[in-house]
Fold each of these.
Amino acid sequence: MMKVAVFASGGGSNFGALLARKATGDLHVEFSVLISNNSTAGACDRARAAGIPVVHLPPGRYSDPALYLRELSDVLARFRVELIVLAGYMKKLPPEIVRAFYNRIVNIHPGLLPAFGGAGMYGHHVHDAVIAYGAKVSGITVHFVDEEYDHGPVVLQETLKVLDADTPQTLAARVLELEHAHYWRAVDAIAQQRLSIQGRRVTGNV
Ligand code: GRF
């Protein structure tokens, strides 16, 4: 099974949903390590409860980005990481890591790309923008990570209707449920190498 590093900064409900799918046998990966910039993140507690090693690695602690890069590279090598799964990770990965893990870093975005994404478009900002625009659908985008925010090839998108009564909060809650229901499918398809990738076009059985 592919060895996965999960990166998370917050509560880690997506990480929790992935752990649950592994427990039911739907998701075929080995969670080797949870890496967080935030030692008090709920995601760290979830990892410890599941017996998964936690590494606290805040980029801001390093005065020299090269030292951070070396530390992060060492951790990924030590745990023999083959696939990086971002699950609410609020820091940008060093470009050297993005290049070294080309098409082996996946992220989930709580909106439909490319419409509601890019720098500054995270968390409630996405749902605020969707409601303010008057969009009738929203959804989730799972994509490979390249050097631009929210830009790499799309692996999976799922949509939901924006209801007339929706507020950013009610919409956020339904989008998060959609994330929990589907992220594991994309991760499993990548881990089991069911996808073929040609430029931006990712096809295959997700
Ligand atoms: C999710 O909405 C995800 O799309 C975004 O960050 C949020 C993380 O939530 N990248 P959680 O920590 O998994 O609960």
Amino acid sequence: MKHGSTTPVIRVLDQATVNKIAAGEVVERPASVVKELVENAIDAGARSIRIEVLSSRTDITSVRVTDDGAGMSPSDALLAFTPHATSKIVGITDLDTIRTMGFRGEALASIAAVSRVTLFTRPNNDDLAAGTRIVIAGGDVIENVPVGAPGGTSVLVEDLFYNTPARKKFQKTRNTELAHIHDMLEGIFLANPKIAFRLSVNGSELVVTDKSPSSLDTIARIFGTAVVRDLVPVTGSGSLLKITGHISRPSLSRKDHARIFIAINGRYVSSPAITNAIKEGYGTLLPKDRFPVAFLSLETGTGLVDVNVHPTKKLVRISREPEITRAVCDAIRDALSGHDLIPDIRSGPALAPAITTGTSLPEQSRPYIYSSIQPGIVSEPTHTGTTATDRQLRQTELAAGPVPAGSLPPLRVIGEFGGIYILATTETGELLVIDQHAAHERILYELAGRKDGKEKRVQELIAPVILHRTPRESAILADLLPALAEEGFHIEEFGRDTFVVRAIPVVLGKLEDTSLLEDIISDVTSPERGQRVDNRERITRIVACRGAIKAGTVCTQEQCQRVADQLRLTKNPFTCPHGRPTMVRFSKVDLDGMFKRT
Ligand code: ADP
Ligand code: MG
């Protein structure tokens, strides 16, 4: 800095520069332009909105949004481009009750500062009112004339970022920008089922939605009817909020949360807290690293949501977040416990790989890895095997109690396949294929996790078992002793790197040989992979997995029936504690279809 100079260093920026800077916040990329224009159309009460995008090989060249909403008078049309000109709020207190998408009055001014905008508009409620055409380039009004126009508004944006080369250069490839537009619009379409949308790119129509009272139609339009078949409805209402929407059965899951759509008061938002609450609602129905598909709409008092924390309003601040996330989690849990969660074979071609030959397994069908099992070989149960299985099943017979609501219908076992799968039918004539290990794992898990009658769950070992561990494992095990004790393992340190086991959970049955115990302790002390659950939960799952009848154990028909009967008594019969399915279903109609009997 030059001292002593009389030229002022600080100056007030001219309005054009201010607008360009502001534009950087609101219109980052072509998708933000589309978002602002579509939100304006929604705010104008449009029943149908058309979005037309044109592109060259490298760039998005123009965006036009046309609505049949309220339209604007000639004077309003010009005012709309003035920074901080808005019809939606008068003062700051209005923000507490805001129901419109926009309110900052920045979008049109910002867009016009960095592009060439052509606006056609005419008030919709007045046949005699004049239409207006305004052309603005780089913030300067080039044309403002009365014209005939249909009621509503159409905004055409061309030459985007022509005068902000840095921002223009920042644009990714045409396809990336198109993908952003598409993704952003999906959220808006889903949050506004009562509006008919059409999106076209270079003249071809990509998405068309109809006016509909329910978002299910929109979901089907965007994601296909197969997804809809795998959804169950969610409803919840409390003093703070009302929740509606649809979520996937556990059989439909994804490796990311890109298909979790949340709308709050009609605004599509991203909320990590609510996303987590949804995931939490699934509990053990989904593996820790999988996410459901969900379309949720939350209606709350407007005072609870602060939308003015981010220029594009995608992130919102929610007050009383703990209560709201709890309500969401409860609603999800209720929705899942009240419904039939058996994966529907028609919606999951992956669940019938042998039938849809040639297709690769989609990601949601992550098969179990079985060791050395040859399903083709017909095996007979062996005597020692049968008595061992009987013992295991006797332990889980404890599960007897009332059949929980929303559970499995009575099942009749008709056979067994490959030492892995139990074949059963329901009264309604469906064929179920049950994974015996996964099913028994679920039964054991629920038993082991029961918080009641703790003392009954522990059995003293007649001969205590001595375990030797490496120093590293010993350190981990020593830390886990209290959690293990809570789960029924009474283990004491017994000198250096040695432990004595005096009691184990009843559900593990009579300890025939100590390898089961060795396995469990190895699992417990091995580093956690992926799953972030507390120690007790982890131990419960390990006990369930290790204690369950193994895949590959050939069971008698009577034993298969016991597994099926016990499974009926569980609260979540449809998945194992790791979230994999315990069964798939074929209805007679499905089978008829496969045999082309229809
Ligand atoms: P905001 O939406 O935050 O109010 P905008 O710059 O997006 O600010 O729009 C300014 C004003 O222009 C709006 O408040 C509204 O009155 C008017 N307007 C913009 N787009 C439309 C439209 N499609 N139909 C009717 N009025 C519109
Ligand atoms: Mg706006």
Amino acid sequence: MNKNELVAKAIEARKLSYSPYSNFKVGAALLCKDGKVFLGANVENSSYPLCMCAERNALYNAMMNGYKKSDFLSLAIAADTDEPCSPCGACRQVISELFPREGEIILSNLKGDIKSSNIEELLPFAFSGDDLK
Ligand code: THU
């Protein structure tokens, strides 16, 4: 599956968004080495801090289906933004724990703008489990 196809899946995932408070739909699609794709969308709550982002839902969806960090190849994120949609700080921290360093993170929007990145670029000097030793 190429980059554009994975972005199309992330745009498709936006349809699953439950976002009655922000009306901001985000979709994510996580591609695994075996070709399987897991989707995620943001799921909000009237108690705002309980909202969950699309990227984290995609990663958790994959993990709840038995997939792990070493199975993941790339992660696409899509929203209706002017610039390719960038993951929030909380998602960057979760991505740094659960998604491989060498994995591609594809930021996109509905206009077809695409930007490729990785977690080292998005979250330099990350806190990690190694710091707890
Ligand atoms: N959101 C995501 O799903 N991913 C991000 O990286 C940025 C923010 C969601 C959370 C909330 O439901 C809405 O977008 C507005 O912040």
